[in-house]
Design a protein that fits this description.
This protein is of the alpha+beta class. It is built from 15 helices and 20 strands. Helix 9 packs across helix 13 and helix 13 packs antiparallel against helix 14. The protein is globular, with a radius of gyration of 26 Å.
Length: 512
């Protein structure tokens, strides 16, 4: 680190050991591969307490045995999110011994916590975070100083401490933070445990004002996706009024992008390894869609903050922007080259009448990602209220078949063709039972078109998530999208699209 590199210098006054544990959990929330955290302080200062709490938070196991590595010098923990190596260098006789302890490999593949970092001399990276712990006013009180390069740690530390401040205002100042999940956006989720029970924190920070951040904002705007937490609050309130089981918002700071939500649990609508849909639960989920789609839903709803939220329309442009992700991101990956002008022209000509047909059809609220990661099972409730819905901030007016296709061809797990047929039959029967006008033939045709539209989008989007957003895990779902697409392309209405795929992306290029 050069002398002119901006550095941070934060000082925290921790009242007791509980506050020290809370700081460890705040650091665990932002730790990532390549990070080094140096713990500095006298014997008994609390270095091991902080390291132990951090590892346990990462492991989501309050009872995990985290022995001091005083004699072994290093203790490694292969955890689901990250491998953490805990070093105690007090007995190190020479910095070169770090090679034998696998230090370089540890920070290449995971993160490292280091007690007595001075023994390592100049072997530690300049980008490390130094946590210096000293005595405070009281037997358990500690004064902590955090130093490191601002460009590496500043924004992350500011955000995680803002979360802790929000929890304090929300009435859970020392709530235990446990990673729950992230998603394809900048949002992440944590489960917060305290003496009152558990809640879920939604952390939705604004995008950074750089080229990558602006590109993501522009892409979401083109896809009519929500920006910021305001739509979540508005749609949450609206769906609750309609009897949908959505989490109650317990506290919120919309300016800072933080919401504390009711914890609906973690029982999914699938089971097994590999995960497979539970037919009863998917049946209830599709009946919930039928119930919503049979209603006359408003164009605007109360935003929960004194105003209204106008629900956007996905529209032809939105549908088209979604499928063109395949051209812009997918084809360069599958073919090893960009799409040429002829391929683009034929692709657009095929989709134009298909999307015009969809736009001319009925419209309703679409949650856009109505599938397994976002649906929970609440067995203590009745009817369709047994389906908990947790992702809906991107609600837009779209064809009813959009969400039905999202569920019947679930992007994250395999829905057998027989179950898809059964779910469509349940939906059709439920729509008829609820009265009103329902065109079954038109719906089934639209379902085929939108199933192909969603698979096409995801075959590009999963590549984009890997290359642009650094989220390669979504690529494991690519083979499933090709299978779903092959299933639906046999529909007569999609014959031209099937021929385009056979010509442009032959079978031997689809799983590169």
């Amino acid at each position: 680190m050069s002398d002119d590199t901006p550095s941070l210098d934060l000082r925290l006054d921790l009242a007791d050991e509980t506050a020290t544990v809370a700081l460890a959990e705040d650091l665990a929330a932002i730790l990532r591969r390549g990070d080094v955290v140096a713990l500095v302080g006298d014997l008994g200062a609390g270095k091991s307490t902080l390291a132990r709490a951090l590892v346990r938070a990462f492991a989501d196991d309050a009872g995990l045995d985290v022995p001091s590595p005083t004699f072994t010098l290093v203790q490694s923990y292969e955890l689901p999110r990250l491998t953490i190596a805990h070093y105690d260098l007090y007995r190190l006789t020479d910095a070169s011994e770090l090679d034998e302890l696998g230090f370089d490999e540890a920070i290449e593949t995971g993160a490292a916590l280091i007690e007595w970092p001075d023994r390592a001399e100049d072997r530690l990276p300049a980008a490390m975070l130094v946590v210096a712990i000293g005595a405070g006013d009281g037997p358990q009180a500690r004064l902590v100083r955090l130093t490191g390069p601002s460009d590496v740690w500043g924004e992350r530390l500011e955000r995680t401490l803002a979360v802790r401040a929000f929890l304090e205002v929300a009435g859970s100042p020392r709530g235990h933070r446990r990673h729950l999940q992230g998603d394809a956006s900048s949002r992440s989720y944590e489960r917060i445990h305290d003496e009152h029970g558990s809640a879920v924190l939604m952390n939705h920070p604004p995008e950074p004002d750089d080229d990558a951040g602006r590109a993501r904002v522009a892409a979401r705007a083109a896809a009519k996706l929500a920006e910021g937490p305001e739509p979540f609050l508005a749609i949450d309130l609206a769906l609750a009024e309609l009897g949908v089981s959505v989490p109650e918002v317990l506290a919120h700071d919309l300016d800072d992008g933080l919401l504390l939500l009711e914890d609906l649990g973690s029982e999914p609508c699938f089971s097994g390894t590999p995960p497979a849909p539970i037919a009863e639960r998917y049946g209830a989920a599709i009946e919930l869609l039928a119930d919503l789609h049979a209603r006359d839903l408003p164009e605007a709803v109360d935003d929960g903050d004194g105003g209204t939220w106008v629900i956007p329309h996905l529209g032809t442009e939105g549908y088209r922007n979604e499928v063109e992700i395949l051209l812009d991101w997918g084809l360069p990956h599958y073919l090893g080259r960009p799409a040429d002008a002829d391929e683009r022209e034929r692709f657009g000509a095929i989709w134009t009448p298909l999307l015009a047909e969809i736009e001319a059809g009925p419209k309703t609220w679409s949650m856009r990602d109505y599938h397994s990661p976002n649906l929970l099972w609440l067995p203590e409730r009745k009817g369709t209220a047994r389906v908990g819905v947790v992702d809906f901030q991107d609600v837009a007016f779209a064809h009813p078949a959009y969400d039905v296709a999202s569920l019947t061809q679930d992007a994250r797990l395999d829905v057998p063709a027989a179950l898809e047929t059964e779910l469509l039959a349940v939906y059709v029967a439920a729509r008829r039972d609820r009265g009103g006008t329902f065109d079954e033939a038109g719906f089934r045709r639209a379902h085929a078109i939108l199933a192909a539209q969603r698979a096409t989008r995801l075959l590009g989007q999963f590549v984009r998530l890997k290359l642009r957003d650094g989220k390669p895990g979504y690529m494991r779902h690519v083979p499933r999208q090709w299978d779903y697409l092959s299933r639906v392309l046999d529909e007569p209405v999609l014959r031209p699209l099937k021929l385009w795929y056979e010509d442009v992306v032959p079978a031997d290029r689809r799983l590169v």
